[in-house]
Amino acid sequence: MSVLTLTAQEEVPAPPHVVFGLFGAGAGAGWVFDALCDRVVPGAAVTLRAPLDPDGALVEIVGRIGTVRTGRMIEIVHDQPWRGRTVLRFAAHGTGTRVRLQSELDQPGFEWLMRRRGHVLRTAAHENTTIGLLTSKSGPGNLFAAASDNMATLALEEINADGGLRGRPVELVVGDDATDPATGAREARRLAAAGCRTILVATTSATFVAVSAAMADSGVLLVQTLMNEGGVSGGLRVQLGERPAEQLAAAAMPMMRAAGGRRWFLAGNDYCWPRATHAAARDVLPRLGGTLVGERLAPLGTTEFAAVVEAVERSGADIVLSTFVGADAATFQRQCHERGLHHRCLTLAPAMDESTLARIGAEATAGLHTVSGYVESLETEHNSTLLQRYRERFGRWAPPLSTLSESVYEGVRMWFAAALRAGSDDPRAVAGAMHDARFEMPRGTVTLDANGVVGQRIHVAEAVGTDLRVVTSL
To answer: 181: how many CB neighbours lie within 10 A of its CB?
Structure first.
């Protein structure tokens, strides 16, 4: 139920049919809340930035167009940074157009906005077992986190429908790291204070490292669900997901065959996961016959990649290893396409997911590949039933699933299976029970050995429009 409606408006010196026709032109174009989308039709992915927080920066909304009334109204159904509906209405105003935006704000959304403003909200004590989810509902990582809390919610609803833990429901508390490690550490402490003895961390590795350090003496189990470079050990630290070396080992030969060449250029964000992936590339690719011809790193939040694209062009690369994430990955790929880079080389982006593909747009994904343990189109019986339940629960315009969000569902199910195995939700008991174990998941069989090393099947997939099609599996 909505508790509040936020409003904002812009006035544009052009008639309504012109303003409506240019909706989605994007940041810097001066049109309608910096909205970005390729087509104004139901189902199209869209992002916009609106002044819904007078005390802070613009709020970025990520969703899909639900309803369109040409020239008059656009409805956006969204899950980020809260789940709701935002409506834009276009009306003549003098010789120009007034665009009025109304955004529904539910209770979780209200609490998110208050924390963003720096207000400390008192959290009532939970009577039941509580599990935390730290994700990126804002910042550059908000694209890959689009379905994360949906998946945690779905997993817990299934668990609770079967009786919960020891006959009582398990509750979920969600935190937003804003794609910032320091914010992530503060949010993790808030989740622990709310009673979360286990926190699933579905963020950048930089945030996971910061959270792990900040929570060193907390007694809380931290489970990193999505792909990572490893290296954070300890009895209360579990790292799931794909690792760079295994991803590159699976993808290198298929990519070089498809590209008809062996020259690789490394390009990505300047933080720990891309640097570790590039280090793995310097080890793995030469052993498989690849040649490295260049490398560039850019800060998270970069919006202009001309220098990186030009460096790739000068290098004569056959394949770009793109380790950009979220909004940066989408922007980089779109700018590569604008320069025609897909005519010269292919791109392998290990962290590319279906939500980011939707932001890139069908045309600009030409030549793009990824490598992961899960894609939404994976043909397993468990995955088919998962997708059916997901759409029934969250609707047709809910964000697509990907290895980054599906891993959250698996993280919850693994935690619950381990708690049953241990006979307790005690963090150390659960962590111990997660090791040397086998789990049947939508992506297939996932194992953790005694040292916490993950075993799973890896798939190389090619972007076909905004979908991923498996090319080969290992």
So the answer is: 22
**CA proximity to 322, closest of 344, 351, 345, 294:** 351
Between CA 285 and CA 367 the distance in angstroms is 20
**3-class DSSP assignment, residue 261:** coil
Q: What digits encode the pLDDT tens for the residues 202-235?
A: 999 999 999 999 999 999 999 999 999 998 878 8
Take residue 322 and report the two structure tokens written for it. 């793109």
Residue pLDDT, tens place only, 168-208? 999 999 999 999 999 999 999 999 999 999 999 999 999 99
Structure-token match 């997911």, residue found: 353
**Measured between alpha carbons, how far is 82 from 108 in angstroms, rounded to an integer?**
7
The band of 29, judged by pLDDT with boundaries at 50, 70 and 90, is very low
Residues with Cβ within 8 Å of 162's Cβ and at least 6 positions away in sequence, in order, are none
d(CA 188, CA 258): 43
**H/E stretch holding 454:** strand 454-455
Query: What would the DSSP string read from start to end of 265-329?
Result: EEEEESSHHHHHHHHHHHHHHHHTT-EEEEEEEE-TT----HHHHHHHHHHT-SEEEEE--HHHH
The position carrying tokens 């709701």 is 84
Q: What is the DSSP string of 373-420?
A: S--TT---HHHHHHHHHHHHHH-TTSPPP-HHHHHHHHHHHHHHHHHH
Q: What is the pLDDT of residues 399-436, one digit of tens each?
A: 999 999 999 999 999 999 999 999 999 999 999 999 99
Position 310 confidence tier, pLDDT thresholds 50, 70, 90: very high
Considering only CA atoms, which of 430, 453, 382, 454 is closest in space to residue 155? Answer: 382
Cα(397)–Cα(355) distance, rounded to whole angstroms? Answer: 12
SS3 state of residue 219? coil
- Separation CA 112–CA 195 (nearest Å): 18
